[in-house]
Design brief:
The chain has one domain. It is about 80% helix and about 0% strand. It is built from 11 helices and no strands. Helix 5 crosses helix 7 and helix 6 packs across helix 7. The protein is globular.
Length: about 290
């Protein structure tokens, strides 16, 4: 039975509806979604934040301009290890966030507004390497796209942002999801790009707001507000426990904000799929016919 707050994913939407339904879905599913999210993705998030703090601490000596410590050679081995751990943990954490969110939406659709936690957890772990593989493939393409003045990255970002939805909702392989993403945005690239741009700007502005406390604390430590700026204290600021905690909390907020982009991307996927294949319309007609025959 469908509840009154049910958000129908399989239908056409304009930009305003995509934004509105993104926040409507997260608002109505706030408790069950984040309960599921943190149970599955929480451990990976904790590891990511620890690696983030370790990397921040390791880079402190690189920005230490204190003359008395100028002769001290940074530990480049520790810096490399911390950077490697940071990158790996970030990729895994963000992949898990995207996977849990999309599998939650999949379960939400299949159960008419309810979710099956066991199914979500099982499917997230079973598709783990698919997500990692697709994340790696998409990252390589976006990096290659930087070569021609960055225009290739802008073009590729649109289909790549929808490839993960195709992977889950169409149950495709990594290669098929990658190739089908280009077919999906064909003839709709500009409108999809404009929609994604607005969503990215909204998330970016919100993310900047969460980064303000970290910037204010660093400026205060450097003496910006007292007009006694001490650049030599920058390295100490990065290794300051309070600064590390504030930056970790800022990263946590930005991590959670990325969920907005994933939900909006799923709505964009279903919008384009409906425009091209009328999948949702055909399902509603079929369900209407079945209910009439009862």
């Amino acid at each position: 039975m469908q509840n009154n707050n049910y958000v129908e994913f399989k239908k056409k939407r304009d930009l305003g509806e995509i934004l509105g339904d993104t926040f409507a879905f997260l608002r109505t599913q706030l408790k069950p979604f984040f309960n599921t999210f943190f149970k599955i993705a929480g451990p990976y998030l904790v590891i990511y934040l620890i690696c983030h703090a370790f990397y921040t601490y390791s880079t402190g000596d690189l920005f230490n301009f204190n003359i008395e410590k100028a002769s001290k050679t940074p530990d480049f081995i520790m810096l490399f290890v911390s950077l490697l751990l940071f990158i790996i943990s970030m990729i895994v954490a963000y992949s898990m966030a995207q996977s849990v969110t999309l599998h939650y939406i999949k379960s939400y659709i299949e159960n008419n507004g309810s979710i099956n936690y066991s199914q979500i957890r099982s499917e997230v772990y079973s598709s783990f390497w698919k997500f990692i593989g697709l994340s790696f493939l998409a990252s390589v393409c976006l990096v290659i796209g930087l070569i021609p003045c960055g225009l290739g990255t802008i073009y590729l970002y649109v289909p790549m942002s929808l490839a993960f939805s195709i992977l889950i909702f169409n149950q495709k392989s990594v290669g098929d999801a990658f190739s089908d993403s280009f077919s999906l945005v064909k003839d709709y690239w500009w409108i999809t790009f404009a929609t994604l741009l607005v969503i990215v700007i909204v998330v970016f502005v919100a993310g900047m707001a969460f980064g303000i406390p970290s910037a204010i604390y660093m400026w205060a430590k450097m003496g910006v507000f007292s007009a006694e700026v001490d650049p030599s204290s920058m390295g100490n600021n990065l290794t300051d426990p309070i600064s590390i905690i504030i930056q970790a909390l800022s990263s946590l907020c930005q991590y959670l904000l990325s969920i907005i982009t994933v939900v909006a991307g799923a709505l964009i996927y279903f919008d384009l799929n409906e425009r091209k294949n009328l999948t949702g319309t055909m399902e509603r007609i079929q369900n209407l016919g079945n209910s009439t025959n009862l």
